[in-house]
Amino acid sequence: MKAVAKQDGDDYLITGTKTWITNAGHASFFLVFANADPSKKYKGITCFLVDRNEEGVQVERKEDKLGIRASSTCPVHFENVRVPKSAILGEFGKGLAQGCYDNAIPHLQERKQFGSRIIDFQGIQHQIAQAAVEIEAARLLVYNAARMKDNDIKYVKEAAMAKLYSSQVATNVTSKCVEWLGGVGFTKEYPVEKFYRDAKIGKFEKHHFF
Question: Between 3.40.50.12780, 3.30.1540.10, 1.20.140.10, 3.30.470.20, what CATH number should domain 96-205 receive?
Answer without folding.
Answer: 1.20.140.10
